[in-house]
Write a sequence for this structure.
């Protein structure tokens, strides 16, 4: 490895590789700052907390990313073979200790900081008085059931399920609590009012995902999973499926309509009940 | 350390079958695994090329999709088989079973693996598993559509959940189970060999980092593949024997109630699969890290910075790798309290990874870099590992994963780490060890061209996927018209597809170089890189028993480059102290 021609060649390669890393780093940083393709504005306070943690994480990882890639570029350029003597060293315990400690503090600290938002989503249940919505995923559609004025969901039976005759959830007509249940393929929610979701599925695992809520929860066969949110901004938001559920996974899309309390009440009273739909 | 003769290596094998087909020579077996992985990576790339083309030109009639226009289930079959083939037949095979098999015995001064016949059986069992897996394409209904992760109940209820979920899924499960058996046998061999067959003087502290990586990877494999095997057997029973490990009662699929199953939990599969699946991704990357350390040191002409810390980091990554599987399940319905625990452990695993990155930079700093193709892939590995690893910090936090789970952000993360960094580890190893394995040099200009097209290409493919994920583009969507908000992302998808087409085509350069140089490459000397480890002390290619009966004695560590006072800038491990020249 002492051929002189190597030295000339290595300057060109070192320069090109280092330059590529610098350009790549700059382009990446620019794209993250420009936010051309980005998440939509959140419509809950919880969503704002998530975004804050995201930005915290982005700053820290961004700084590490830039330092590491530029550091690599610098080292590649400076340490190319240009006839120099090698600086022989096998390690540095102090440096190892310092950067290990710094990394632990940074990574674990960042993780701990973000747990608060998680706790709010999951460790606490919905506020009392929440509007309950039973969310049922199936191949390949979502259905939303409201308990109606009696505040109770009627029973369902697998053998009663028949989408083709207007009873996709198998609501049992014999259960008195079913009488005022409302089933809709589109979700409505009142703004500024806590909503509790009871997420379930009929067949395979699906996942209920609304970007603006910063909410995603798998719908798992055999389970009913509770989530909650309080939407502050009226509008129409897309609900998509985020867990591979079969050939129609990509088109399992419906809408969340956040409306004023008055509009929500009107919508509810306008709906046919589930039993009337059959 | 026990020394004894490895099984019956006193006569070279005779006859074509014994020499090249059912060989018990670890070198032949290593090449067989490598060729299996080479075939698989091109197959896997072809599948992903079809996927990417379909996403941006959905009405194009494509070859290999019967009937012309690709259906959603065909797309999902491609997704499933691309993932399965790449993870198992490429990333679990080439770095460990391929290069590990070839180089581990030689690097520790052994004449072969501890169990040569078992080694042969491991390869042929892997081969059978590949045949079974690929056969899923050719049965009625085609290949399964449940992804390489095969979550029940989609994967457990049979044909009723979708095309490919009949015989195709069953073959997939059986193929995987056979692969598990092969991997377990291989792991046993690696561990026993490393513990028992090291030459005199080859203490643990003098083992190359490649050997440490293969050893820890084998331990991970031994502990993880048994769990996947169990999970596959349970899934198979649910599918064919009416059991309900993963299937609860009360299900209705397309208005048809599912009877005969009750009490099972889909989450059980996820726990079992990911308890295997997370160590699996470390199995995919650790050998590449070992190779990166090895190659960076060799071509910077400097010892690895912090050898002990590097060994410790490999061990820590291996151990912690078993503690973090729940980070794949934050939104699965698993207890949110355990999510908290998994999250902190996952953030912690970033620490040994960071240590390794610092130490790679420390290895290069003050060195004298020779930019061979192998070195460039090793340098690329460091850059890619940093990029891919950092996105993990987002996904490790459940509050952020709530948004990012099952989006293209995850696809970006695991492709950069596995589908690129680990692949770069394989390329670095190939360009480094090809002269030793085949006695010829690979063509350097073609190699450098391959490097540049690939390095620029893979960043062009996978960097934009982070933004798709941030915009909320879910994974495994066969079609981008299902949700309105995806329309704005079409330009990004076009860019990715074009980049993929160019990058995949560029791999043909590598394929050409690989096979052409076997006959036409410049003949390789014993030690073309002036490297220090034991494989560079024997002819290229090596004789059937590696050391021609003269097993070496080891006198020093593996990275004695540019030692002050030495006459050469490298001191091989096997050279006796008296023979080490002194600078005047």
């Amino acid at each position: 490895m002492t051929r002189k021609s190597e030295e000339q060649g290595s300057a060109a390669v070192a320069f090109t590789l280092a330059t590529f890393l610098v350009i790549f780093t700059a382009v990446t940083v620019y794209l993250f700052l420009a936010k051309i393709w980005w998440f939509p504005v959140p419509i809950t306070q919880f969503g704002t907390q998530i975004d804050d943690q995201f930005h915290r994480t982005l700053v820290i990882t961004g700084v590490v990313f830039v330092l590491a890639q530029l550091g690599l570029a610098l080292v590649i350029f400076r340490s190319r073979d240009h006839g120099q003597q090698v600086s022989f060293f096998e390690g540095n315990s102090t440096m190892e200790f310092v950067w290990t400690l710094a990394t632990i503090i940074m990574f674990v600290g960042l993780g701990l900081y973000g747990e608060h938002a998680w706790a709010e989503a999951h460790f606490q249940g919905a506020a009392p008085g929440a509007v309950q919505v039973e969310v049922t995923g199936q191949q390949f559609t979502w259905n939303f059931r409201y308990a109606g004025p009696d505040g109770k969901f009627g029973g369902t039976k697998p053998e009663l399920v028949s989408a083709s005759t207007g009873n996709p959830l198998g609501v049992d007509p014999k259960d008195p609590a079913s009488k005022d249940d409302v089933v809709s393929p589109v979700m409505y929610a009142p703004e500024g009012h806590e909503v509790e979701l009871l997420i379930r599925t009929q067949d395979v695992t699906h996942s209920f995902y609304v970007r603006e809520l910063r909410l995603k929860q798998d719908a798992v066969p055999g389970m009913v999973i509770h989530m909650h949110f309080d939407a502050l901004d009226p509008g129409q938001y897309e609900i998509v499926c985020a867990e591979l559920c079969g050939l129609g996974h990509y088109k399992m899309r419906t809408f969340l309509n956040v409306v004023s309390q008055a509009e929500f009440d009107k919508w509810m009273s306008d709906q046919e009940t589930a039993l009337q739909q059959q | 350390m026990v020394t004894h003769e490895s099984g019956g290596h006193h006569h070279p094998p005779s006859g074509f079958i014994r020499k090249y087909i059912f060989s018990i020579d670890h070198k032949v077996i290593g090449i067989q695994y490598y060729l299996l992985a080479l075939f698989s990576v091109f197959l896997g790339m072809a599948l992903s090329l079809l996927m990417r083309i379909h996403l941006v030109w959905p009405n194009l009639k494509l070859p290999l999709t019967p009937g012309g226009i690709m259906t959603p289930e065909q797309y999902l079959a491609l997704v499933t088989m691309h993932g399965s083939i790449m993870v198992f037949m490429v990333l679990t095979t080439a770095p460990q079973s391929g290069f590990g098999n070839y180089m581990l015995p030689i690097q520790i001064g052994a004449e072969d693996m501890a169990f040569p016949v078992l080694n042969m059986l491991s390869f042929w069992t892997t081969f059978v598993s590949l045949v079974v897996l690929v056969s899923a394409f050719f049965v009625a209904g085609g290949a399964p559509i449940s992804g390489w992760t095969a979550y029940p109940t989609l994967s457990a209820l049979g044909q009723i959940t979708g095309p490919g979920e009949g015989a195709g899924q069953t073959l997939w499960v059986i193929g995987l189970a056979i692969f598990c058996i092969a991997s377990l046998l291989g792991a046993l061999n690696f561990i026993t060999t490393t513990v028992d067959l090291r030459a005199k003087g080859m203490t643990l502290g003098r083992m190359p980092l490649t050997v440490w990586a293969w050893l820890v990877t084998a331990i991970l494999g031994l502990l993880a593949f048994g769990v996947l095997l169990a999970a596959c057997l349970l899934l198979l029973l649910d599918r064919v024997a009416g059991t309900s490990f993963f299937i609860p009662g009360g299900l209705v699929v397309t208005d048809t109630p599912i009877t005969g199953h009750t009490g099972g939990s889909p989450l059980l599969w996820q726990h079992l699969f990911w308890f295997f699946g997370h160590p699996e991704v470390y199995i995919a990357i650790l050998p590449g890290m070992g190779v990166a350390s090895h190659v960076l040191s060799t071509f910077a002409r400097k010892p690895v910075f912090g050898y002990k810390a590097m060994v410790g980091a490999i061990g820590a990554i291996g151990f912690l790798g078993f503690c973090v599987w729940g980070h794949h399940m934050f939104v699965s319905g698993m207890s949110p309290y355990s999510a908290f625990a998994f999250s902190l452990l996952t953030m912690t695993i970033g620490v040994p990874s960071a240590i390794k990155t610092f130490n790679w930079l420390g290895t290069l700093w003050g060195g004298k870099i020779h930019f061979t193709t192998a070195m460039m892939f090793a340098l690329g590995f460091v850059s890619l590992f940093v990029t891919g690893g950092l996105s993990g910090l987002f996904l490790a936090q459940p509050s952020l994963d709530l948004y990012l789970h099952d989006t293209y952000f995850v696809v970006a993360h695991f492709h950069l780490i596995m589908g690129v960094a680990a692949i770069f580890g394989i390329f670095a190893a190939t360009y480094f060890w090809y002269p030793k394995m085949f006695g010829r040099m690979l063509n350097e200009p073609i190699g450098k061209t391959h490097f540049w097209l690939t390095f620029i290409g893979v960043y062009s493919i996978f960097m934009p996927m982070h933004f798709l994920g941030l915009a909320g583009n879910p994974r495994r969507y066969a079609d981008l018209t299902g949700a309105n908000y995806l329309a704005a992302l079409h330009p990004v998808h076009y860019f990715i597809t074009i980049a993929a087409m160019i990058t995949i085509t560029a791999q043909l350069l590598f394929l050409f170089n690989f096979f052409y140089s076997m006959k036409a490459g410049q003949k390789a000397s014993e030690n073309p890189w002036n490297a220090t480890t034991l494989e560079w002390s024997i002819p290229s290619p090596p004789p059937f028993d590696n050391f021609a009966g003269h097993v070496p004695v080891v006198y020093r560590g593996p990275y004695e480059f540019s030692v002050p006072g030495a006459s050469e800038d490298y001191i091989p491990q096997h050279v006796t102290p008296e023979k080490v020249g002194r600078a005047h």
Q: What stands out?
A: The longest strand of chain A covers residues 131-138.
